[in-house]
Amino acid sequence: MDARVFVNEFNIPPPTTETSEDVMRFLKDFEIAAKGRNIENEGRNIENEVNVRLQKQQILNVASQFRQRERTLEDTPPRWFQMWVNDENGFSGLFNRIGRMETRMDRMETKMDRMEARIDRIANVQRRSLGFPIDVVPFLNGEEPTEKLPQIRSVEDIDLLTKDQCTSYLNGYGIRFNPNETIKLKERLRDVVGLMSAYDLAYQFSGFP
């Protein structure tokens, strides 16, 4: 085994044994570390932008306080201040942009959760091609299925689910389905978690109990 293949900037230790399962473990750790770095960089850029805008706001607040103290005889704030407050690039605009940034961060988090689910599914397809059981795939919100739902490691696990359990899984993965379906529900769930080996695809599901 060529150890140079496993040298990485994340200090992830290489496989300790020359087995496919150990190599798949290294691959999953490597994917998670790379994804984490991307999220960290994006979050740091957004945080820096917010901090700069907030500091500008604080400086402008100080300037406004000094200006108001200098013009204590006037009943209304100076014109420049009124214009700044109403300016789309001023105070109100700042909070509008912060709101948009928060929306962007929420969308980014949703995209990362979806990306993680796709990565887990691809890893499971690879694991099944090597004859290993699959890992649990988190829902789109980033959370793993609750303890009330049986874990899915094989097509046999899916076949033992009740209809409520099966639809709970599909809803968690954001999969559309017809509530009148039976076998098709199990097939949809099989595909979304990465059970795609020849054995899995040939497996004949039974109806719900």
From TrEMBL:
It comes from the Eukaryota. It holds the Pfam family Mug135_C. The keyword Metal-binding does not apply. Residues 127-195 form the Mug135-like C-terminal domain. InterPro entries: Mug135-like_C (IPR013902). Residues 98-125 form a coiled coil. Keywords: Coiled coil. Belongs to the UPF0612 family. This is Mug135-like C-terminal domain-containing protein. The lineage of its organism: Eukaryota, Fungi, Dikarya, Ascomycota, Taphrinomycotina.
